[in-house]
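thread: overnight batch results

M.L. [08:02]
morning all. the overnight job finished for the chain we discussed friday. pasting input first so we're all looking at the same thing
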Amino acid sequence: MLTGKDLGDALQEAMRRKGVSQAVVARYFGVKAPSVSDWIKFGRIDKRHLERLFDFFSDVCDMAFWGLTGPLGGVVAPNVDQERTAYNASSDRYVYVPVYNVRGSMGNGSAYHHEEIEGKHSYSQAWLLEEALDVKNLVRMKGEGDSMLPTIADGDTLLINLAEKKIGGRVYAFRVGDEIRVKRLFRQLDGRVRVVSDNPDKNLYPDEYLSIDDQPEVIGRVRDRSGKNGL
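M.L. [08:03]
and the structure it wrote out:
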C-alpha cells in the first residue's frame, strides 16, 4: 500500500478525480480542513479514517490505485456492497437509499412490528457529500399526522440519518415502546427529554416530557423531506 508522501499524492489525485474539495472531505470524515491538508502533505492518516477513505473514493479509485491487495500494515479494505459500488460508478453519480414500509407518527402514535424494505430512492452523490451524509447510514420512511406542520406535512417521505442519535433540538425519528414517532427532541438538565411538535397549536399538540425511566430510542435525525406539502 502507498505510504507517506505517496499516499498524500494519491489522496490528492483521488480528490481531483471525484471533484471534491478539502472542505468536503473534512466534513465527511468529521475533521477540520487543516487535518486533510496534513493528510495530503505528509500522508499520515489514522487507520479509522484510512479504512473509510478506501470506501469514500471507491467509485473513482480501485484497490490497485492504493497499491492494496490484502491486509497490509493492519489495514483491511472494507467489503463494499457490489450493488452500491455499481450505483456509485454509474455516470449519473446517484446512490440509492432503501425505503422502509414504516410510518413515523406525527400525531397520536402508531405501532409497527414488521419493518421491511419496499423500494429504493435515488439521491445525488454530490448533495450527500455537501451534507456530509454517508449513504450506508440513510433510510427513508413516511411521516403521518399534522403535529409537525409546517416543517413536515402528513404523507411526506423523510430521509433519516441513522448516524445522528444525539438529542439536540433537531427533528428525530424515535421509538417509545411500540410506537415510532417523529418529533423535535430536547434534552433537559434533569435528564428528561422534552418532545416538541412544530405545529403552533399547543392546545392540540402540547409539549411532552419523557422521564429518565421512559427514554426514547432514537432511530436517527430527519435530514430531508419530500412530498406535496399540502399542494
